[in-house]
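The data are set out underneath:

___
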Amino acid sequence: MAKSDKNELVFLPLGGCGEIGMNLNLFGFGPAHDRKWVIVDIGVTFGDASTPGIEIIMPNIDFIMQNRENLLGIVLTHAHEDHMGALGRLWPLLQCPVYATPFTMYLVKDRLSEFGLLDDVPLHEVPLKGKISLGPFDMELVTMTHSIAEPNALAIRTELGTILHTGDWKIDEAPQIGEPVDAAALRALGDEGILAMVCDSTNVFSPGYAGSEEGVREELTKLVSEYDGRGVAVASFASNVARLESVMMAAKDNDRSVCLVGRSMRRMTAAAKSIGLLEGVGHLIDEDEAASMPAAHVLYLCTGSQGEPRAALSRIAAGEHRNVRFHKGDVVIFSSKVIPGNEKGIFALQNALADDGVDIVTEKMRPIHVSGHPCRDELKQMYEWVRPLIAVPVHGERRHLLEHAKLAKSLSPEYSIAPRNGEMIKLSENGAQVIDIVSSGRLHQDGTSIVSADDEGLRLRKKMAYAGHVAVSLVVNGKGRIVSGPEPRISGFPEGRNGKAMDDLLDGVAEAAEDAFESLKPSARRDEDLIEAKLTSKIKRYVKEQTGKRSHIEVTAHRVK
């Protein structure tokens, strides 16, 4: 058999390596010219000030679209947005079956309904600890613990070896919902022999263990009791069903009824109840019922722990929520961590609450939050159980992956590699080798369109957001004389006192445009393209000299007979 016809087992991340979020992993088997592929997770990340007008960002999937005929399916490890949030947006480009456990499938159906795709997507619900067979891949789900219901690792068996893809995980012996990590299954896989482990790196710099949800539940119950007779609200990640149950039990133990505030809270609660969770948590009331009850008998469970402007908690703090109000002496408990990058929004929210006389309690003040990802000692435990030949760190920034690879070298694996998005890695008994680099990057959802991060319109928008916009129009006749204009319009610049700075800049731009026009040869004054190029160059220099900004300049010349 020719070398090019030999089967190979490869791993290809298109998202989630070099960043925390936007996870998309490809596993491939077969010869290079006819390789079969499975996608594991298809997530999003979120825009920030550097991406004006963009809220949702997804992995670039050009490579797998070019190989779509060999795509066997999408398997979801769990229901966090950074692992399944791109499904409804990208599935029309992929059009393959989707596999998920019951809780994740409930949310998948809900999301696909929003996109009008529910009747189009072939959906396959897989039981916990179930198996999936897709072409050369035989996959087995392994129960893990994480900050959401039904997190799974995948044991991916092939003729060339078995890969364990951990998904997101931690070790929690008392997770409050679901079963603890299936250590017996992981040890059995280690005994069987694991070629490579693709593993979460989020907390590799944190020593010890992440901690148990059991302790959080006890502390929340105690904390709520300390505010007897006062209004209480808790902000948390809606996807953390164990935390929702902990809050509900804390309310029940303190004779309070829980009011869910925020769409995602209601959505996640419905998903949990659909698989038999959140039983015996007490009475859940709606916002109208809560408004008619004394504050001392209500606990508001709110979205918006990260300071999101449109989330429930921000709207309540701004006095814009139609039903819920906080008063002086009430308390808001943030049972969540500050995700890096969200500090400004969170602190602004907390300042607004404090300004209204609301007490604030955070995880820095009381032990009311634990991470859903493995700390250093948990990673060591996983390597003791699984004993892979090759360590493949994922789910982290570059520094996380390099540190995880360094840690792995001191443990059981003989080989380790810190992958980058777009690197195709061959996994074999001889170790891990980058054999190809494919197109990767980011897609931005811009309104109803999905466009490349390199799209010219997005580039111009970003430039205008940071440096302003100058537009100039003029009309010339057939003899090359100006008959109207130059008429400048500027936006995104400070007006200064009494608008004088704006007026001066407008006058200066008009004068620079006239000077540039007059410097043209008579023959060039009748050529719209030459006029626009000359005026753009002159105005750009003038604006830079006056403002220090490299603004977007747009000149439109019209010629009339």
